[in-house]
Amino acid sequence: MMKSNAIRKDSSHPSGLDRTDRMLLRLLAERADRSYVELSELVHLSPPAVHERVKRLRRDGVIQGTVAKLDGEKIGCPLLAFVHVLTEGWGMTEPILSLRQLADVEEIHTATGDTCLILKLRCSGPANLEKLLSRIQKVKGVQSTHSYVVLGTYLERGPIPEVPASINHSGSDNP
């Protein structure tokens, strides 16, 4: 049996991923519940070969986890907001990191420009957002916040690997 690391030897992509790896990642990013059989049909490999590749991509940390994408409105959290946080000095302090414990905080990013941190929040409504902002503003080191409430979302996804234009979703080359 060929070791899965040998599969990548002829990779010319800077990421070290070959075309099949990138296609598998794209297919899984679109729908993570695809079976190895379905993936194998789409990339023209056997199910065991696909399983080995996915196992290697997990082991190498390329695939960091598999999560369910939840509908905020259907779980009672329809309000989506981004909050820019201005802090004293560098923003990533232990009090700021404690915000990770709040269920309404989906993401925390350090940033350049007019802000130090960008928080992605999802909550039940304006009153909940107001309470959350009050809590954030009381964190030691926070100077100010600027909030942006989302009116509509037209695209929300994680990174998707580049797949050469000559490959379509059926896994075959276009003429």
Give me the count of strands: 4
Beta-strand portion reads: 15-25%
Average per-residue pLDDT, rounded, comes to 86
| SSE topology string | HHHEHEEHE
State the major sheet. Answer: 4 strands, antiparallel
- What class, by secondary structure content? alpha+beta
Shape type: elongated
Tell me the distance between the termini: 33 Å
Uncertain segments: 4-10, 167-175
Q: Measured on Cα atoms, how large is the radius of gyration?
A: 21 Å
Number of helices: 5
Strand order of the largest sheet: 2-3-1-4
Helicity, in percent? 25-40%
Summarize the structure.
The protein is an alpha+beta fold.
How would you sum up this structure, described in words?
Helices cover 28% and strands 17% of the residues. The protein contains 5 helices and 4 strands. Helix 2 crosses helix 3. The radius of gyration is 21 Å and the shape is elongated. The chain starts with 18 loop residues before the first helix and ends in a 26-residue tail after the last strand.
